[in-house]
Amino acid sequence: MKKDFIIQKVQIIFFIPFIIFISVFADLFSPALVFMMAGAYIPINGIHFDALVNSNILLNSLPYTRNEIVAAKYIGALVYMLLSITAAGITLVLFNYNYSIADIAIAVGLSLILIAMVFPLFYLLNPAYLGAVILISLAIMAAIMPSIIQYIVHNVTEFTDFLSSLSTATIYLSGAIISVSFFMISWLISLYIYKNKVF
Q1: Which of 51, 49, 32 has its CA nearest to residue 145?
Q2: Rounded to whole angstroms, how far apart are CA atoms 19 and 54?
Q3: What is the mean pLDDT of residues 141-159?
Q4: Cα–Cα distance between 63 and 187 in angstroms, integer?
Q5: Integer distance in angstroms from the first to the last C-alpha of the chain?
Q6: Is 73 exposed, middle or buried (0-12, 13-18, 19+ CB in 10 A)?
Q7: pLDDT in tens, 12-65
């Protein structure tokens, strides 16, 4: 995790302009998606940088188990995600952009799911272009997701009626359970892949 902290100091130089850019164009995006993009930025960039410089060769030469290496990556992702979302919240306040606690809660859940999907891919696939593809996909998703949600709300009435019948607490609790479950399953998958990977 100390290595990740040193790497992330460099990433912050790019993170701040990234958040300012999102804030300037925040009216085009849902607040939850703005927070999600911020929350996923540093964890995904960090693991992408690790893969590009092949830091796993160095890590596996040190007195750490592969369990500890994967655990440090996932715990670090949680820490940097929360710090990034906090920084994004402060930046949006400075730009007079309103958001709610619900937006942050949704963003945390979406960020956990996104990280859960991406991390095993970095351990499994060639990372050369994966980071760029993911960031572009995030931008596209941020642009089209509001339209998709609006379409579902207006055309898939059975689903929206079912959600309307649930209490707010039930919806958020279900979302939290789903996102945390995705994250933990991803952790186990990454550990399995990493343990069997040859460097």
Answers
A1: 32
A2: 28
A3: 71
A4: 21
A5: 20
A6: buried
A7: 667 677 777 766 666 666 777 778 888 887 787 777 677 666 776 667 677 778
Q: Tell me the one-letter amino acid at 34.
A: V
Name the one residue in this structure whose structure tokens are 């790019």: 14
Distance of CA 39 to the CA centre of its chain: 5
CB count within 10 Å of CB 63 equals 5
Label each residue of 74-135 as H, E or C: HHHHHHHHHHHHHHHHHHHHHCCCCCCHHHHHHHHHHHHHHHHHHHHHHHHCCCCCHHHHHH
Contact 115, 183 (CB under 8 A): yes
Alpha carbon distances (Å) from 1 to 7, 9, 69, 112:
10, 13, 9, 19
Q: What single-letter DSSP state applies at residue 62?
A: S
Cα–Cα distance for residue pair 9/15, rounded to 1 Å? 10
Structure tokens of 150? 């609006």
d(CA 99, CA 112): 20
User: Is residue 46 a contact partner of residue 12, using CB atoms and an 8 Å limit?
Assistant: no
CA distance 108 to 85: 8
Residue of 57, 72, 189, 184 lying closest to 122 (CA atoms): 189
- Tell me, yes or no, if the pTM score tops 0.90: no
